[in-house]
From TrEMBL:
Protein name in UniProt: Mobile element protein
SUPFAM superfamilies, per database record: Ribonuclease H-like
Entry superkingdom: Bacteria
All copies of domain Integrase catalytic, residue ranges: 1-134
Signal peptide, first to last residue: none
InterPro entries per the UniProt record, alphabetical: Integrase_cat-core, RNaseH-like_sf, RNaseH_sf, Transposase_IS3/IS150/IS904
Phylogenetic placement of the source organism: Bacteria, Bacillati, Actinomycetota, Actinomycetes, Micrococcales
Length: 141
């Protein structure tokens, strides 16, 4: 939530625990094995599954779930998924999951992170915001 950057994602034919674990593993890898970070999710069965809870524990992460019926808890992700739907998924029929996966990754890494300016970040992209903030942290240390 700090910089609106999507740090872990996965695609599969079904929403199983392995899908959530793969996304979590990617996020941990991108962030250099952070410990004690809160991982917030909705109440989906894939996030309550033993595999996912074990992955959280293995990486010393703290799981957090939204309350039942509390739509504001996941508002940031709902907004992201709406943009993904409009900018990638609804553009045309995808002949294969591989082509869809490539289009999603290209959009997230090329457009959403590097070109899409966000009001909450002071009209900066997530990459620009993170770069500026990390430089400030380095200078402060």
């Amino acid at each position: 939530m700090w910089n609106n950057k999507i740090v872990g994602y996965s695609i599969d034919s079904r929403m199983k625990a392995r899908l959530a674990v793969n996304a979590l593993e990617m996020a941990v890898g991108h962030r250099g094995n952070p410990e004690g970070v809160v991982v917030h999710s909705d109440r989906g069965s894939q996030f309550r599954a033993r595999k996912f809870r074990k992955a959280l524990k293995r990486h010393n992460l703290v799981g957090s779930m939204g309350r039942v019926g509390a739509c504001g808890d996941n508002a940031a992700m709902e907004s992201f998924f709406s943009l993904l739907q409009k900018n990638v998924l609804d553009r045309h029929p995808w002949p294969s999951r591989l082509e869809l996966r490539l289009a999603i990754v290209q959009w997230i890494e090329g457009i959403y992170h590097r070109k899409r300016r966000q009001r909450r970040l002071g009209k900066l992209t997530p990459v620009e915001f993170e770069t500026i903030m990390m430089e400030a942290v380095t200078l402060a240390a």
